[in-house]
């Protein structure tokens, strides 16, 4: 799980163009949205693209992102639960 | 009194403010590299900058350089501040990126963050978001910088609710890019500075041609 | 005092008809134009519905009577709708008065360019396509087609484009720069648009349901719509007939997000309030609102909030006509301006199709059946990506 979280950090920074964010600044249990990284609705859609591109997971309803993308850990757990890590 | 109070011009990997080159980078840098250097030079911290497409970055920087050192944002009512931009290529540069991604059948991952920039007026939106400017805005597509159109339109806005405006040209087409933005106010205060020029076609053409580019 | 500006001619082509009278028939029979994709080649052909114009490119060539190979679908439909508006108004562009063409588009010639996109990197066979790619090209084609035009310009502000074209036309007349202007917008469907809107996950796979609690998104459409607007001096000179008057307009920026509307509908509230102020009409004097109402969760909630902010508990009768035409992007505001004039002329509110359940926290209920009622004033909203919000107010002439 930890390795997956580490991998996700790099992928998120790349996919979302977070040029001023260092991987260690994204904490596994901190909220991805709201304050902190300053992510918005387009970033949520980019995370859906990330899941499809790197893990072959397709999400049809953008509302599902709300629970999946709460934190790095929820994202990693979701990927595991799909058997795609 | 309608006056141009400040202006910035970016091309040939150089930034000029009120006619003077204030920043330049190696002419071999790509547009994106140059924009990144100019952003550092500006000393701003705005993480959203890195998410913008080239055209928005260029327009954003040009506006920031024009605004720097002025009281434009504090002295004007931002709900009565207009943004009027123009170019020839619309959003061609980012259109290409999006079109490439949808043409690639083996690697089909079109990006929402790219698609949102396939409209030229998103550059206006980025300026509005950064400074909470909620006045009127328009984006014109014309073959080249049309000083007549921009001045006439701004004059028209000044006859309504608008008290100040950010006006100009922001164009990116492949390696060719240019941004030229001036700030103008309809104000009681006259001749606050020698830089100020009356808002008319001649002024716009003069300031557009004023910079002596070093390369 | 600056002179009044009247609408004197209408022209439109969209999924609900190839001209104004066909469109009126569809509207008054509650017949949507949205259905399976027939003409556009896209990977989403069987996945999404669209408001396609029912004519092939070959059909359009026959109608336009110009087989210039460089023309594209965008230009064909723009030329047809603009010509219809000019004929409808009865103006003569050769009578010595100053005529302008102010058009708007977002994708311009993309629908054709994308067909040759890969090939263009390899050989020069279709370079003429690139000449017609730019946003300004279809406007120039309209001007050439109409003949003897003094002023041409093109606006591109996403889905409020045509509203801003109408505004600019009105202002140029009021400031004495032109006597009359053909104003409007055009966007033909393209793969580019479909793929892009799909990445934003705001396309409904079924018919869109504006203002419904269970709305899933929009249906894309294609259209061109143009109106002839004339200053009262020019109109009196030729003893022409006004169809409606443009009494209010305003534009504001939402300053919230590149694509999403602010939750409270700030920019929309500004635009509606300022348009009302210009018209001198009280809130209670608006008889009907033709909403932007795209059917996306974000727009309809935000627009509802703005509507409540301006009208309180006295919200006028309203509907979105997007479920007839689909969202026609740069053309949307001019399509809805034509529809608004048809409403004024015929004393009819065209229904908000596919609505069943009001948005929980809003409880706003649109007109879901054709309503026959005298109408004197109509507010029409159009909001675009980039935070660009425009409202127009039309009054019966």
Helix content range of chain A: 40-55%
Which of globular, elongated, flat, extended, rod-shaped describes the shape of chain C? globular
Q: Tell me the CATH architecture of the largest domain in chain C.
A: 3-Layer(aba) Sandwich
Give the largest interface pair and sizes: B-C, 47 and 49 residues
Radius of gyration of chain C: 20 Å
> What is the N-to-C succession of helices and strands of chain A?
HHHH
Q: Which fold name fills CATH's third level, the topology of the largest domain in chain C? A: Peroxisomal Thiolase, Chain A, domain 1
Number of helices of chain A: 4
The major sheet of chain C is characterized as: 10 strands, mixed
Mean pLDDT of chain A: 92
Terminal residue distance of chain A: 9 Å
- Domain tally of chain A: 1
Could you describe the 3D structure shown?
The complex is a heterotrimer of chains A (85), B (215) and C (397). Chain A has helices at residues 2-15, 41-55, 65-68, 72-81. Chain A is mostly helical and 85 residues long. Chain B has 215 residues and is an alpha+beta fold. Chain B has eight helices and eight strands, in the order βββαααβαααβαβββα. Chain B has helices at residues 31-42, 54-67, 72-75, 92-103, 112-115, 122-131, 147-158, 201-208, and strands at 2-11, 14-17, 20-24, 81-87, 137-141, 164-173, 176-186, 197-198. In chain B, strands 1, 2, 3, 4, 5, 6, 7 and 8 form an eight-stranded mixed beta sheet that branches. The longest helix of chain B has 14 residues, at 54-67. Chain B is globular. The mean pLDDT of chain B is 94. Chain C has two domains: 5-237, Peroxisomal Thiolase, Chain A, domain 1 (3-Layer(aba) Sandwich); 245-396, Peroxisomal Thiolase, Chain A, domain 1. Chain C is built from 13 helices and 14 strands. Chain C has helices spanning 20-28, 57-64, 73-89, 110-122, 127-131, 135-146, 161-174, 191-199, 232-237, 266-279, 297-311, 322-325, 332-346, and strands spanning 5-13, 50-51, 99-104, 151-155, 180-187, 220-221, 223-231, 244-253, 288-290, 317-319, 348-349, 371-372, 377-384, 388-396. In chain C, the strands form three sheets. In chain C, strands 4-3-5-7-1-8-14-13-9-10 form a ten-stranded mixed beta sheet, sandwiched between helices. In chain C, strands 2-6 form a two-stranded parallel ribbon. A two-stranded antiparallel ribbon of chain C has the order 11-12. In chain C, helix 2 runs parallel beside helix 3 (73-89). At the B-C interface, helix 4, helix 6, strand 5 and helix 7 of B face helix 4, strand 4, helix 7, helix 8 and strand 8 of C. Strand 5 (137-141) of chain B pairs antiparallel with strand 4 (151-155) of chain C.
């Amino acid at each position: 799980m930890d390795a997956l979280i580490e991998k996700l950090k790099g992928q998120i920074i790349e996919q979302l163009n977070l040029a001023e964010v260092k991987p260690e600044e994204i904490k596994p249990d901190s909220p991805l949205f709201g304050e902190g990284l300053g992510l918005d609705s387009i970033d949520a859609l980019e995370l859906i693209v990330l899941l499809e591109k790197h893990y072959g997971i397709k999400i049809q309803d953008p509302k599902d992102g709300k629970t999946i993308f709460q934190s790095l850990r929820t994202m990693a757990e979701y990927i595991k639960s799909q058997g795609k890590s | 009194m309608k006056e141009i109070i400040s202006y910035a011009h970016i091309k040939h990997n150089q930034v000029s403010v009120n006619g003077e080159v204030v920043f330049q980078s190696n002419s071999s840098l790509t547009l994106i590299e140059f924009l990144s250097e100019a952003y550092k030079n500006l000393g701003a911290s705005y993480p959203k900058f890195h998410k913008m497409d080239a055209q928005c970055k260029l327009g954003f920087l040009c506006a920031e350089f024009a605004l720097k050192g002025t009281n434009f944002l504090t002295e004007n009512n931002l709900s009565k501040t207009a943004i009027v931009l123009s170019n020839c290529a619309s959003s061609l540069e980012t259109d290409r990126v999006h079109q490439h991604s949808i043409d690639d059948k083996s690697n089909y991952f079109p990006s929402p963050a790219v698609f949102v920039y396939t409209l030229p007026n998103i550059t206006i939106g980025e300026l509005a978001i950064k400074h909470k400017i909620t006045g009127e805005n328009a984006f014109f597509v014309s073959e080249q910088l049309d000083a007549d159109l921009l001045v006439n339109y701004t004059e028209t806005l000044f006859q309504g609710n608008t008290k100040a405006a950010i006006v100009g040209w922001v164009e990116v087409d492949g390696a060719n890019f240019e941004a030229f933005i001036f700030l103008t106010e309809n104000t009681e205060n006259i001749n606050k500075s020698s830089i100020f020029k009356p808002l008319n076609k001649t002024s716009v053409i003069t300031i557009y041609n004023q910079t002596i580019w070093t390369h | 005092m600056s002179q009044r500006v009247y609408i004197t001619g209408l022209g439109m082509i969209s999924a609900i008809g190839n001209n104004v009278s066909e469109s009126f028939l569809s509207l008054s029979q509650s017949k949507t134009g949205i259905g399976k994709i027939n003409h556009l080649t896209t990977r989403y052909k069987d996945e999404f519905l669209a408001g396609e114009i029912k004519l092939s490119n070959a059909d359009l060539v026959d109608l336009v009577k110009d087989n210039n190979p460089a023309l594209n679908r965008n230009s064909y439909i723009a030329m047809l709708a603009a010509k219809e508006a000019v004929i409808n108004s009865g103006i003569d562009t050769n009578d010595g008065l100053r005529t302008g063409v102010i058009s708007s588009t977002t994708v311009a010639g993309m629908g054709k360019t994308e067909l040759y996109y890969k090939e263009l990197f390899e050989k020069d066979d279709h370079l003429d396509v690139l000449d017609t790619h730019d946003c300004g090209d279809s406007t120039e084609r309209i001007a050439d087609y109409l003949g003897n035009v003094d002023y041409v310009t093109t606006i591109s502000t996403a889905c409020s484009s045509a509203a801003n074209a109408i505004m600019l036309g009105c202002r140029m007349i009021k400031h004495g720069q032109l006597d009359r202007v053909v104003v409007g917008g055009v966007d033909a469907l393209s793969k580019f648009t479909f793929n892009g809107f799909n990445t934003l996950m705001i396309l409904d796979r079924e018919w869109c349901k504006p203002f419904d609690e269970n709305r899933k998104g929009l249906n894309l459409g294609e259209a061109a719509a143009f109106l002839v607007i004339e200053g009262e001096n020019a109109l009196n000179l030729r003893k022409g007939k006004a169809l409606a008057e443009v009494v209010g307009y305003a534009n504001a920026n939402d300053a919230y997000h590149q694509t999403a509307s602010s939750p409270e509908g700030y920019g929309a509230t500004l635009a509606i309030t300022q348009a009302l102020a210009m018209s001198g009409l009280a809130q209670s004097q608006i008889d009907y609102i033709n909403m932007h109402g795209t059917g996306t969760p974000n727009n309809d909630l935000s627009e509802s909030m703005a509507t409540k902010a301006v009208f309180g508990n006295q919200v006028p009768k309203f509907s979105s006509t997007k479920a007839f035409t689909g969202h026609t992007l740069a053309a949307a505001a001019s399509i809805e301006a034509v529809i608004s004039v048809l409403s004024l002329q015929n004393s009819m509110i065209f229904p908000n199709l596919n609505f069943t359940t009001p948005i929980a926290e809003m409880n706003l209920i649109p007109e879901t059946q054709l309503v026959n009622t005298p109408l004197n004033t109509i507010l029409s909203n159009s909001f675009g990506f980039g935070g660009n919000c425009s409202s127009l107010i039309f009054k019966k002439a």
